[in-house]
Amino acid sequence: MRQRLLILLPLALFMVLGGFFLAGLGRDPKVLPSALLDQPVPDFDLPALIPEKGGLASADLVGGVTVVNVFASWCVPCRVEHPLWMRLAEDGDVRMRLVGLNYKDRPQDARGWLTELGDPYTRIGTDADGRVGIDWGVYGVPETFVIDPTGRIRYKHVGPMTEATWTDVIHPLVRSLQP
Amino acid sequence: MITEIGHYALALAFAVALAQSLVPLHGAHVGRASWMALAGPASQVQFLLVAVAFASLTHAYVVSDFSLVNVARNSHSAKPMLYKITGVWANHEGSMLLWVLILTLFGMLVGTFGRNLPPSLKARVLSVQGMIGAGFLAFILFTSNPFERLPVPPVDGGGMNPLLQDPGVAFHPPFLYLGYVGFSIAFAFAVAALIEGRVDAAWARWVRPWTLLAWSALTMGIAMGSWWAYYELGWGGWWYWDPVENASFMPWLLGTALLHSAIVVEKRDTLKRWTILLAILTFGLSLIGTFLVRSGVLSSVHAFAQDPERGLFILVLLALAIGGALLLYAWRAPALRAGGLFTPVSREGGLLLNNLLMATACATVFLGTLYPLFVDVLGAEKISVGPPYFNATFVPIMIPALVTMALGPMLPWKRGDLAGALQRLRLAFAAAAVTALVTYAVASDGPVLAVLGMAIAVWVLVGTLVEYADRIKLFRAPLRDSARRAANLPRAAYGMTLAHAGMAVLVVGVTGASAWKQESLQMMQVGDSVNLSGYEFSLLDVGQVAGPNYTTRLGTVRVERDGELIAVLFPEKRWYPVQAQETSEAAIHSNGMADLYAVLGEPDETGRWVTRFYRTPLVPWIWAGSLLMVLGGLFSLSDRRLRVGAPRRAAQGSGLAPAPAGG
User: Fold this and answer.
1) Which residues, including other chains, have CB under 8 Å from residue B329's CB and lie 6 or more apart?
2) Is A3's CB within 8 Å of B334's CB?
């Protein structure tokens, strides 16, 4: 009898796993948990990555539209989206603040990365142990949040920002949120 | 026209696969020879049809036929020919077609060369193979058709991700698929054996070469992937514990276990149920790997275009294949009787311990990879699991696995003598102790784990060599006698020695690269120099050069040591205008003992350049060790005992007969 049960164990485990897969299919890891949407940003205060630019805290995200970009030097897709942020920062025609949240990274690596590829951010907070990332529901990097002038999260994009997403979704949203 | 032929051939292949999965199976059940005999020709026709489909898609890529959605999205007319061809499988639809091409190729090989298989076993194996083929062909035809046309073809294509335009990554997927799909044969044999209700030495001798082939190809594929990450991502790292890397690593771990447990089935007629279960799970993990990459359940760097509908289709396939096989297992496995008994300290015991450790390591990686999904589904927060988890859990399991790796081959079958085996390994123990002391003295500021890593690598290497020397009675018999023994040793024995030595070399590389990597990051003007642990790196020049479909900024870096020229490195930063994307091409100089690695970055306003230099000791050993392991696998595969068509149930009797001495 015991042996019979042991033989059934792989099948039982697989069925549980299949259930998880099925449940996982329905949900997109890229979608913001509804709990965070339209809520004020979590309370946080991060030290600066680059001292001259200042760190990042909840208070910095009120008054004006802010785009928070979560990035890390070890993250390959961040490299892919980086030229877009550089261009937006250089053009300066979009009225928004672009701030960086450096996630689970070594500060010296992150600074090197920004010197190498350019630094588009107005402020950068260092979240070396990923604690603040957890509060924000960061799933993977890169991620991009849009914060309205009252400091509420209005949108989350997971994965590298593409030209299409920017023009079709984020840019219109940023404009509509402007006071 | 050619495209339509390809599309039609694919639909026909689906029909043939359906016939192959039903007719021979029923024929075997009712004992009708003519129905069973259909399996062979069906597998050949199915392969030919898929090959036609694959060739016509390749043709569309070569001539840049942008009326195909797939070509328009993933190719570009200015792309070098090599990447037009490799572009065929650098996208979701094409890679699935390659997957099925390899699947049908293997089915065809079994169908053509399996003359010595008992007809009912052959019919059932090919039927199972046909079912897998039918499932994946349906997946391609209904959800991922590479032959879809565009009403208005664009003038030029969207191009291929520049990161993938690289010879290393171009041939990485075919090797991975050879591995994944190779395990499908072991799976088909396992399911067929469950239906037949018998597993014997001849069965194991059929499963082993396919497992060896799959394992060698997978080892090669994983090594190529990590080599690509090393030089293309520009960070000097070689393994990132990314979900997709893990997806290929998990079948490798279980495949390694399967490789070893099949030996026990062959030689000692025991561990049958476990081996069958391993064969099912190894292929299951290959399928889950496919599922994870394509369903969007987990995010990853490597992710293909993700689509829940495709994910659902693959999930159903997975449930049918693995769920069905495990159900059959639960029903039929109790009928499989174990043969030879053995004590814990014996060759069987050693192989079983290897199996348990590999399976545990695999479970650890599995848990880490899927934990974010579990947590998410259970309604907690969304999280990610990173390298610290894997380093903290995987390494402690690998240490006993490596320690026993030298010991296991020393033990005889059935009942071993642990004290005697340890005594024969005293040379290995002494060498490991000396290595630990030397490592500690030379690199006392490094991590303690590095001392352990080097000692264990030497333990495995010397232990493996001692075992080989024992076998040929080196220094205990006249040299000529030893040479004769060496020549007569079966190839499989050389395979084991090579693969185990390869593992030791790999451990040296991993230890060196993890513990003693040095790096320096700085801004440099042309003409500046920096010193990195005694090496003088000077930036001599930065110039613009045009490539076929990119422009590149080419740096020239001279490396000197004590005034003596070591190397001139040419790191590049490439710009691909079609995709508006940059890639960095690291320049690497290797002398076998350490790599010098240079990366060129962006300039600042004052014309200074960001440069990054690394010196990573022993890192080439990682790939040298992997290659040795592949070589070991191929050596074993060439053993005459395993040659395709060689196993004969009747002629070989108990399966204990050693290979006849090669003349």
Assistant:
1) A7, A10, A11, B194, B273, B276, B277, B280
2) yes
